[in-house]
Structure formats: C-alpha cells, structure tokens
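Working notes for the structural subgroup meeting. M.R. asked for a predicted model of this chain before we commit to crystallization trials. I am recording the input and output together here so anyone reviewing the notebook later can reproduce the run.

Input as submitted:
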Amino acid sequence: MLEKYKSAMKKMDIPKELIEKTSEKMIQQQKLLEQTNRNKKKPYLYLSFACSFILIIAIFYTIHNKSNDSIILTELIPNGTIQTVNVNDGILYFNNLSEEADNIKVNQNFGIPDSLKKEWTKEEYMSYLGKKIELSYLPDGFIMEKESIHVYKNKEGIIKSDEYYAAYTANENQRIELSVRKGKLPSKSYQGLAKESEIKQTKLSIVYIEGLNSYQAQFLLDDIGYYLSVENITQEEFIKILYSFFY
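Returned structure, recorded in token form:
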C-alpha cells in the first residue's frame, strides 16, 4: 500500500518532501494500529482509508498549484507587457489600445432609455443569473470599495437590461473593476478592435492601455457577459484574476 501511494504521488508531481513526510506518518500510524488492535483486518482497513484521504489532499494540492502558479507558459517581463502570452488551454493577445480609442471608438452598451431602473439584492440578481459571481482570486491588499446592481424593466415589467458592478482597491492607484450582464457584454465592446484571445474554447477581447497602465478583458461565458478592468497591477496578476472565472 505504501509503495502504491509513493508511485501515485510521483505521477502527480507532488514535492518529494511532502511524499516522505506523509510516508513516515503512514508508517507510524500503521505501527500504532497494529499495537492497539490485533484484529488483522482492521489496521489495513484504517490504513487504506488514510491513504485515500491523503491522496485526495495531494490531488487538491496539485490542482491548486497548477491553477495558480503554472497557468502562464510564456515568460513575462517584470513591470512590462508581453503582447502574446501562451497559457494552459489557450492563448492571450494583449492589443495595445490608445486612450483616445478607449474613449471614442468602442461600442457603448448602456441601459434602455425608456426603461425603469430597479435595484435588486445580490441574492436576487445571482438567482436571476443562475450563477454566483465573485472574484475567486484577489491579489493581496485589495478590498471591495463599491458594489451595485441595476435591473432595467419596461412598463410591462419585462427585464430589458441589467448590470452588476464591483470595484476593489488596494491604494490610491491600484484598482480592479468587474461588470457583469446577462446574455450580452456589459458597458462597452472592443469587438472588431482587438484580436481575439481564447481560454478553454471561449473567445475573449483583451486590450492594454499603456497611458493608463490598464488591462481590460471582455468575454461571454455560460450566457453571462463579463467586463474586467484593472489599473496598476502586473500582467501576471491580471491573467490570474482572468483565469479564475474559468475554474
């Protein structure tokens, strides 16, 4: 059983130190069980359960490492921007967009003018989306500064548009903004202005605005439109935030 455990761990690229420490604990546990219970079947039953439990922990350890530290395959530049970045399950194109293009050339998607704006609770809106939306990866030091939900209905009470917005800040300069909309892209669209990126067969538009030190991404996933914008954080952190929506 111990040899099978070691073999399984090596295949998953678990650190050698973790394997050795766990193996020592398994041996100690086996000896303790043999001393306290002379029934030959039970010690091995407990040992088998322990191996399964440890295997589950090791799998989660591997998934966590791969989903955070190994998603970026291209070597990035500290405090710089690489325009083409290979990642697990995709490729990201960072299109350099001027501040003027960001303000003028994008296609705006605001609420319907003749609709009535309604405010919903977060629980009501997430139920409407059919999915809980949140940043599962947030760089150290960031806290939520603002959160709002607006739903636009016509006179008959039919929902014509909606938007969820959340802003996170770490200091006066660092900022993360997330907008979500059901069925379409929120706020503004870079479609046609940016070369399409891809993560897990989902198309994305990603731009980099050098004058603002800002990365922005838009994509549709599970019939929900996302708009992610960050300022004054690294390209690596931006990619990790972006990737968190896909796992």
